[in-house]
Amino acid sequence: MNSPISFVKGHCGWDIVTLLVGEQIPPGKELETALKIISPPVSGGIEVGFMYQTDEGEDIRLRIVDSTHKTWIPMCGGMSQVIGKAVVETFFRERFNLKTEGPVVTVQLRTDSSMVPLQIEVENGKATKVTTVMSEYAAYLYREGVEPVNVLGVEGIKVGYFLILDIEKLKQKYPDVEFAQLKPGPHQDVLRQIHEAYMKQQDIEEGLYNILYDMNAEGPGQARIFSRFYEKTPSAISIPWEFQCGTGTVAVGIAMAEQGKLPFKGDKGKVVFEWGSQKLTPDPYGIRTSELNIVLEEKKIVSASFNHSVVEILCEGQLTIPGY
After folding, report:
1. Residues near 7 by Cβ (< 8 Å), separated by ≥ 6?
2. SS3 at position 36
3. Is the pLDDT at 56 greater than 90, yes or no?
4. Are the folds of 5-138+311-319 and 144-307 the same?
5. Domain boundaries, the chain
6. What count of other Cβ atoms lies within 10 Å of the Cβ of residue 21?
7. Residue 303 is inside which H or E element, if any?
8. Rounded to whole angstroms, how far apart are CA atoms 207 and 219?
9. In the CATH scheme, what is the code of domain 5-138+311-319?
10. How far is the C-alpha of 2 from the C-alpha of 323, rounded, in Å?
């Protein structure tokens, strides 16, 4: 497989992704290709997305491989944000024959979890804001199961394949541990014990998607959120800052709804999340945020959409896969 592959690389708040033209990959070689792109010497990011042309009622068929499980995953919210910019600003616009003059462009993505519409605000040929509609994805998580769990004496919420932990609950058992810290420390040992116990409890063999949150916002938000994924072997990507997770944003929203901790009254509202702690992990972008808009029925999320504050295209071109 020596033929160059057309690609776009981008990120949303340090969630780095590589997007490929799916038809350029030989059938049956997709997973192998993605794992080579994730790993050195390519080091193409946390996820790889295969984008396919389709006539099934959606604009783009999307399949995703990630570096945590090192296999196919049902959805990546951050990747959808990058796709929103890529279909306006890169060769993908012509590839999928999309009309992107604006001011708002809608693109229908079909993922392994659900249909995911993108609402893209366009100005002077640039995507200025991408809103990912996650209503069907929220329904997918509910079908996968939402229930309270107790792991080593810490109460949490299982939301589909996510483990959501309220830092307030963690502090009840570990009052002297700073879970908002990203640098090495006691928090990593505690979380690893919790992760491994939960994986055993839930019969999970590979990696785990764990998100922490608290209500101690430092800037414009209402809550803070922290991606704390678990991998048996270190990721090919080492990121010194907190990375954003769109699917995790929705999962935390579901957990907050279950726990009665949504920061608004009534059945419709918005949660603004800050990613990490700017005090403990100063970020070059400053305080990055995600805005989650939700509608509830009987305390369950029936409509959800989000956007990240930082979404950038890094490069596009031709990618050659290592020959080993």
Report:
1. 18, 19, 20, 21, 44, 316, 317, 318, 319
2. helix
3. no
4. yes
5. 5-138+311-319, 144-307
6. 18
7. strand 300-308
8. 32
9. 3.10.310.10
10. 7
- Can you tell me the distance from the alpha carbon of 311 to that of 84, in angstroms, rounded to the nearest whole number? 9
Residue whose token pair is 């394949």: 161
User: Which residue from 103, 69, 71, 73 is spatially nearest to 88, judged by alpha carbons?
Assistant: 103
Distance CA 191, CA 197 (A): 10
CA distances from 23 to 7, 29, 35, 227, 318 (A): 12, 11, 17, 32, 14
Q: Tokens for 254, please give them.
A: 């579901």
Model pLDDT for residues 141-181, shown as the tens digit of each residue: 999 999 999 999 999 999 999 999 999 999 999 999 999 99
Instruction: Please tell me the pTM assigned to this model.
Output: 0.95
Write down the residue that tokens 């990375």 correspond to. Answer: 243
Strand partners, 156: 149
What kind of fold does domain 144-307 have according to CATH? Diaminopimelate Epimerase; Chain A, domain 1 (3.10.310)
